[in-house]
């Protein structure tokens, strides 16, 4: 039986990788993207706000909606409340109108009700919109997802071209990279297996790695790593300069690690090590 999913944010890093993976694995995909944005799998529908009624008949009764719209940096015109919370609310409403019973949402590792970071607060509020919607859901709280075109690798690649990679602060803060194809397999399970129903799960890879160690592996030790004072990195970010945003830096030093064992027990998957991803994708 063919499964059908609707994907928001389908032209972003997660959307295009998961969309392509699902498409190759027999899923019918309908992507909701903004005007002028392309996807090279499945069907595409243009939507600016996800609240247009014309969308409803085109996506009715899909098995699940994968909500991948999100932003990790805010501006005067596009703040977290509007995008991360407001569009999640529109998505819930769209699912109800189109009789789509399940939402899969990528939240962030470190998100909880005690969060004080603006990005995390917006992700928590989006989670709450989904949890209290009455719909079924799987919420995946992600560490960095890596593949051949992920935002972190692209950022590091740009720095490699300039001849040095900047490490804000000590670089000893840790994270748990997870391969985007493993994420796609988890999403397929979340759509098809009952045990993922109404679950909030850490989306974390099998290894806890420091930023220093990851960057070293990424650059194969061939590019100079330049430590800069965290205060300087933060000031640059506040002035929209440098390689990281204010909230990127906060998440980095937050040293967020999660429960990989719970994910491995639930999925019964064998996960890809980050060194393998970097090598196989020509990233290291
Ligand atoms: N990448 C990671 O490692 C990571 C880690 C933790 C959580 N996440 C979460 O995972 C989700 C997907 O991340 P990603 O890496 O794929 O991000 P991405 O590459 O930046 O893609 C973001 C997507 O959201 C869309 N979008 C942004 N603002 C929008 C708006 N105002 N209206 C409509 N669409 C809008 C973008 O569409 P346009 O192209 O039209 O702008 C794009 O399709 C996000 O919620 C992110 O917070 C990602």
Automatic annotation (TrEMBL):
Residue intervals of the NAD(P)-binding domain: 9-153
Signal peptide interval: none
PANTHER family per UniProt: NADH DEHYDROGENASE [UBIQUINONE] 1 ALPHA SUBCOMPLEX SUBUNIT 9, MITOCHONDRIAL, NADH-UBIQUINONE OXIDOREDUCTASE 39 KDA SUBUNIT-RELATED
InterPro entries linked: ComplexI_NDUFA9_subunit (IPR051207), NAD(P)-bd_dom (IPR016040), NAD(P)-bd_dom_sf (IPR036291)
UniProt-recorded Gene Ontology molecular function terms: protein-containing complex binding
Source organism (scientific name): Nitrosotalea devaniterrae
Stored Pfam families: NAD_binding_10
Name recorded for this polypeptide: NAD-binding protein
């Amino acid at each position: 039986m063919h499964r059908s999913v609707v994907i928001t944010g389908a032209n972003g890093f997660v959307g295009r990788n998961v969309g392509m993976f699902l498409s190759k694995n027999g899923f019918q995909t309908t992507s909701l993207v903004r005007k002028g944005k392309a996807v090279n799998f499945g069907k595409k529908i243009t939507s600016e706000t996800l609240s247009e009624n014309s969308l409803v008949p085109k996506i009715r009764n899909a098995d699940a909606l994968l909500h991948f719209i999100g932003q990790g940096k805010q501006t005067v015109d596009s703040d977290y409340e509007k995008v991360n919370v407001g569009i999640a609310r529109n998505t819930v409403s769209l699912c109800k109108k189109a009789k789509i019973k399940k939402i899969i949402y990528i939240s962030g590792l470190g998100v909880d009700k005690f969060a004080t970071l603006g990005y995390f607060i917006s992700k928590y509020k989006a989670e709450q919109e989904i949890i209290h919607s009455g719909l079924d859901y799987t919420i995946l709280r992600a560490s960095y997802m890596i593949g051949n075109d992920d935002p972190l690798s692209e950022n590091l690649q740009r720095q490699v071209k300039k001849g040095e990679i900047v490490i804000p602060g000590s670089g000893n803060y840790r994270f748990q990279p997870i391969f985007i194809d493993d994420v796609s397999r988890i999403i397929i399970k979340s759509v098809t297996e009952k045990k993922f129903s109404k679950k909030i799960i850490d989306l974390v890879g099998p290894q806890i790695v420091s930023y220093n160690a990851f960057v070293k592996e990424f650059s194969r030790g061939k590019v100079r790593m330049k430590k800069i004072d965290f205060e300087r990195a933060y000031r640059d970010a506040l002035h929209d300069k440098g390689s990281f945003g204010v909230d990127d830096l906060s998440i980095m030093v937050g040293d967020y690690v999660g429960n990989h064992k719970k994910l491995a027990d639930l999925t019964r998957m064998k996960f890809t090590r980050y060194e393998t991803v970097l090598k196989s994708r020509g990233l290291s």
